[in-house]
Amino acid sequence: MKLTNKSEYALLALTALARNYQKGLLSGDELADGQGIPKRFLQQILFALKRAGYVHSVKGQEGGYELSKDPRDITVAEIVRFFEGPLAPTTSVSKNFYQPSPIEGEKGLMSLFAKIRNEVAQILEATTLAEVSGLGKPRGRR
Fold this sequence. Notes:
Blueprint: H1 5-19, H2 28-35, H3 39-51, E1 55-58, E2 64-67, H4 76-84, H5 107-125, H6 129-132
Antiparallel strand pairs: 1-2
């Protein structure tokens, strides 16, 4: 798995919104300037996040963006999958995006890449926006 700039910027924007959760709206300019995200690129990202139900926006001079869900309920895995697709290093071991690949005939390689997928998925699925934003653990975890 390799993150594109789009995924990285999305995660940066979402972390800023997580830190501001239930404190009011953040303008696109505040997000772009505060996180070092090109404004035009941020608009595209926020539009995608809004359509997916992660972000809510309000238009107007006092408008801006906020998370649609509690940051403790949004995992890093779901955001990465939304923008990048599979977490697996090859689609032939992907649980959510399986497609055949040339290595399927090699059980040793399949086993190795499945282990990598499992480790990456476990970490990203267990990590929420709240955690990476410094807000604490998700609900129900100690």
